[in-house]
Amino acid sequence: MLTPYDEFPVHQAAQTFSQIPSTDYNWDDGYWFGVFNPEQQVFLGTGARVNPNSDMFGGYALLNVAGRQFTVRFSRCWRRSFELSIGPYRIDFVEPLRRVRLTLESNDSGLSFDLDWEGTSPAFLEEQHLATNRGRRTTEQMRYSQPGKVRGWIRLRDALYEVRADSWSGSRDHSWGLYAERPPLAPASTWLPPRQSAGPQRALRFWTCFRTEPFSGFYHLHETAEGMQCRMDDVFGTPFAGSLYRGWDEEKIVLASGRHQLQFEPGTRILRKAVMSLIDVAGRPWRQEFAVASPPWVPQTMGYHPGSWKDGGSFHTYHGSEELALEWDEFDFSRQPCRYSPYKAVGAAAQDTFNMGSSGGGMIHGPEYLTRVTTHAPDGTVSVGAAQVELFITGRYAPYGFE
Length: 403
Known about the structure:
This protein is mainly beta. The protein has a single domain, classed as AttH-like domain (AttH-like fold, Beta Barrel), CATH 2.40.370.10. About 0% of the residues lie in helices and about 50% in strands. It contains no helices and 25 strands. Strand 16 (about 240-245) and strand 17 form a beta hairpin. The chain is globular and about 55 Å long.
């Protein structure tokens, strides 16, 4: 089956772009975009993913305002149309790897927007993510991440937010390949032997896209339960990587190492502040101070997880219409930890598929933070701005006494 992309001389396999080199239901390709303003405590997260083997194209738009979270989800069968649109939602690449237009036209949910997302520094191509279980490759994924600035508008019912590039920042990533098993399109663990990984496992993930003009950039780090940064058999196996730029065209500043001092809300794993000490490849020290500006937002409502859709499925599953399925909901996450239950029983056993924030006893907290950030450059320059921070702490993590 031909697609518009087959017109261009970019094939990497002797197949059309409507086919992929895997029959695994967990192979997908898609985008994440963040649009945020810490002063207004507003975070919009939106994106979409194609799952060729289930023939589904699903997406979401999540608006969190000071902890009150509204999510609209949309889905259709993919091979009906290879346009990057699902009903009222559309992604247009105005200038690939630099400018993207994000549109959600008026719809019954009451959430709509028209946004021009522009990179403030080039995208960072991460190392390939690899993980195995008993000799079977369960993750083989590529990803790039990028900071940005955004202009346009967002409307939720009667509330209108004017998005100005001088005060609204952006984050984004694009990933493709095998990421992780995604129930319900995954075998039930009861029919398989216990998991048996081939290397160390991740306990901490710190990821950020930041903008403190004139600097912007991206980095991430991953550590074991003992706080070791090492190669891991995990969906995010890279010990440390990242870079920053002063503007778009100046020399890339490659980061060589990073360490952290994190402060948490008392009695929880909810981040309050973070200090990151960074060294670039020239040996120069950088420091960033992050202050959380709003209650973290909860990604379980976006559609990745089983039970995030009201029929119990995810955006990789069929929701009763080949042309358009659309639904929405609203939660108050302004006080965390809080109780959250996925729709229908299918999601209960798989709620932690992506190691989202868990506080035990059926309580969760968001692992995604809207922050103010201050960058201290080696030359003494101090700049302030905004960042998205993703922080997962899974299970025991000795450096901060988490059991």
